[in-house]
Amino acid sequence: MNPAAADPDAMMRQWNEQIQAKLKQADEMKQVANAVKVTQRSSDGSVSVTVDQNGVVSALDLTDAALRKQPAQLSAEILGAMRTAQAQIAAKMQEVMTPILGGDSATMDALMGGYHERFPEPEPEDPAPRRPSGPSDDDDFGGHNFARDDKGW
User: Fold this and answer.
1) Residue ranges for the chain with pLDDT beneath 50
2) Per-residue model confidence (pLDDT) at position 19
3) Torsion angle of alpha carbons 44, 45, 48, 53, nearest 10°?
4) Predicted pLDDT of residue 128
5) Strand partners of residue 50
6) Any coiled-coil ranges, and where (predicted)?
7) Cβ burial 58-81 (10 Å sphere, 16+ → b, else e)
């Protein structure tokens, strides 16, 4: 028979110790989580986005090269870097939480599941649309200019 089960005071002390240990663990998790940041650069390095543990942008750095881009291209690079950084939060959180949670896989699974749900892997980027190499108008003349042709029509 468990001696603590027979002694209510011992049982209360044991519960209090468990509660204190969980509170300490929760405080440590909060401190570590608050320090998590992920930075992602665009492929050419002109855009850098940093997000915090909640996926909120905490820094955005643009080089002079970024400012020479078309607005749509710059927006796409900023959003792409942000989404890629957000998708990396779960891995970073798992890395910093593993020493704290140890074998508590239920808590880790719940924590990581929330991050994977909120920040899925970004869709692969479509290559830039290619411009047609032929004539710019929609004619059936194959680019031949009959007005300059000596043979005429």
Assistant:
1) none
2) 94
3) 80
4) 53
5) 39, 59
6) none
7) eeeebeeebeebeeeebeebbebb
Q: What angle do CA 85, 71, 127 make, to 5 degrees?
A: 65
Q: How far apart are CA 129 and CA 39, in angstroms?
A: 28
Question: What per-residue confidence (pLDDT) applies to 54?
Answer: 93
Q: Does the model's pTM come out above 0.85?
A: no
Half-sphere exposure of 99 (CA within 13 A, CB side): 6
Supply the pLDDT for residue 145.
Answer: 61
| DSSP reduced 3-state for 129 | coil
Per-residue confidence (pLDDT) for residue 126, from 0 to 100: 59
C-alpha–C-alpha distance, residues 65 and 49, integer Å: 15
